[in-house]
Amino acid sequence: MPTPQQVVAHMMKHDLFSQWLGIEVLEIKEGYSKLKMTIRPEMINGFGIIHGGIAFSLSDSAFAFACNNRNVLSVALDTSINFLKPVHAGDELTAEALELHNGKSTGLYQITVSNQHHHTVALFKGTCFRTNKTLL
User: Fold this and answer.
1) Helix/strand/coil (H, E, C) string of 66-100?
2) What 8-state DSSP symbol labels residue 51?
3) Separation of CA 47 from chain center
4) Do residues 91 and 107 lie in contact, with contact meaning Cβ atoms separated by under 8 Å?
5) ∠ CA(23), CA(18), CA(130), 5° rounding?
6) pLDDT score at 105
7) Which residues contact 4 (CB under 8 A, 6 or more apart)?
8) pTM assigned to the model
9) What's the chain's Rg over C-alpha atoms?
């Protein structure tokens, strides 16, 4: 049986989008992940702040790594995000995914995104559907 860290290492190796974002995996435990990334100038929208899709994508990767790391292929069923504070180029974001429910067919996760000042800048909630397939 692969460890949660092995599953996430496999996922990250094949996740070209998370690699492009510059995501670094900080910590992995069953049902949990913690990631970080630095905001680059090309991630800024026309208002001079981070494009919402970037914060969403970081959160979505944290969600995916948390809900799949038991080696049960799980896919997003429903997601939502609340943007609380603006993010700027050069900011370093950390996304921490906590498992709220681990069911046989679904899982519920809350992802908190904070900046380098430990201010919460976004909250993401995701529900996943668990398949009968494995990743490794």
Assistant:
1) HHHCCCCCEEEEEEEEEECCCCCCCCEEEEEEEEE
2) -
3) 24
4) no
5) 115
6) 98
7) 28, 29, 30, 69, 70
8) 0.98
9) 14
